[in-house]
Write a structure and sequence with these properties.
With 350 residues, the chain is an all-alpha fold. The protein has ten helices and two strands. The chain folds into two domains: 1-134 and 161-186; 190-350, no CATH class. Strands 1-2 form a two-stranded antiparallel sheet. Helix 1 runs antiparallel to helix 2, helix 5 (197-233) packs antiparallel against helix 10 and helix 7 (248-271) crosses helix 9 (290-312). The longest helix has 54 residues, at 75-128. The two termini are 27 Å apart. It comes from Kribbella alba.
Length: 350
């Protein structure tokens, strides 16, 4: 096919992937809404049904069915209680089944969107005759692809499908913004980008950035789940939507694993390969360009996160807060510096 045909294919499949990510997002949103409906059903029968603590798996675990409490009352009273408890249990079970189905559909749609997304990035590169990382549009479609890649890898390794809503929101939003506001026709690279260091530097930054995003989303959900767990300890209740999530402790460990994977990759790709490329392109390793400064700030925040966990034993809310701050710093480095700040990396915004 000709470069023009590749460009047309890319321009078709990228918006299509955006729509399918949006459908996956809606499916995962429906999953959470169904769990809230399960919560309402269970609450209506709380007077006669004792809720059994849920056993939440790391993956898309089902909310444990409620079971009737035992009593030494009369046979008629016990029979009525059992019947009421059975009805509540059946309703909760049906709601949980529907939520599971919505979760599976959302994951399947994410896989389909990922295939189209990958095809859009590849055909964009074929249309340009180079790696598709020469401007902000291409950075956006590649970085969002990296987020989905990291998510799908960790779905298989750590059963992270409960993170599907957050990931599909990010993917649909970034692709939608790229298509509507950042699109640039495929063209040649500016001279400074003509180097194999482009592949090393940008691919490492994109993958680690995807992992930073996953770690940030997990940390946000950790704060929500840990607050719910504290409310339960104080005598409150937890919605089935949150019961489907892993424990706060498990999510804290997952965030650490993701960020511990991303940090050395960011260190190599951005703070080692980047300066080497700068020496090749501009004749100096480090010049305190705004992009270089914010890349260093991003590294410092995540270094502080890992250092605090390793030496001070920081866990839980303090560690999650640092991870979220690091995520926002990375987002500003990726978007704000490219679009709002003038510097040697301003070509990334064209």
């Amino acid at each position: 096919m000709s470069p023009e045909t590749y460009a047309q294919v890319s321009n078709l499949v990228v918006p299509t992937a955006t729509v399918i990510y949006a459908l996956a997002m809606m499916s995962h949103a429906l999953e959470w809404a169904m769990n809230r409906a399960v919560s309402g059903t269970a609450a209506g029968d709380a007077a006669v049904v004792a809720e059994k603590p849920a056993e939440v798996l790391v993956g898309s675990a089902r909310v444990q069915d409620v079971v009737p409490s035992s009593s030494s009352s009369s046979a008629v009273g016990a029979s009525a209680t059992t019947a009421s408890g059975s009805g509540a249990s059946d309703g909760a079970s049906r709601g949980a089944d529907r939520a599971d189905a919505a979760s599976r559909i959302g994951l399947l749609l994410t896989y389909l969107a990922f295939v189209l997304h990958l095809a859009g990035v590849v055909t964009r590169g074929l249309a340009a005759g180079r790696v598709p990382w020469g401007n902000m549009y291409e950075f956006s479609i590649t970085a969002s692809l990296a987020v989905v890649v990291v998510y799908l890898v960790f779905v298989h390794r750590y059963k992270l499908q409960w993170l599907g809503l957050g990931v599909t929101v990010v993917a649909a939003a970034v692709l939608g913004l790229a298509t509507l506001a950042l699109y640039t026709p495929a063209g040649p690279l500016v001279p400074a980008l003509h180097s194999y260091w482009l592949v090393i530097h940008v691919s490492a930054a994109a993958i680690s950035g995807g992992a930073f995003t996953i770690g940030g989303l997990v940390s946000v959900l950790y704060l929500v789940k840990s607050r719910a767990e504290r409310r339960v300890l104080a005598g409150g209740t937890m919605s089935p939507s949150l019961k489907r999530l892993p424990s706060a402790e498990a999510m804290d460990g997952t965030a650490y694993k993701v960020l511990a994977f991303a940090f050395p990759l960011w260190t190599f790709g951005v703070l080692v390969a980047g300066p080497i490329w700068a020496q090749y392109a501009w004749g100096r390793y480090w010049g305190w360009d705004p992009k270089e400064v914010w890349s260093l700030v991003t590294w410092v925040v995540y270094a502080a996160y890992l250092h605090a966990r390793a030496t001070a034993g920081w866990r839980g809310r303090r560690a999650a807060t640092i991870a979220i701050v690091g995520w926002f710093v990375f987002i500003f480095n990726f978007v704000g510096v490219n679009l709002l700040v003038s510097g040697l990396h301003s070509y990334a915004g064209v």
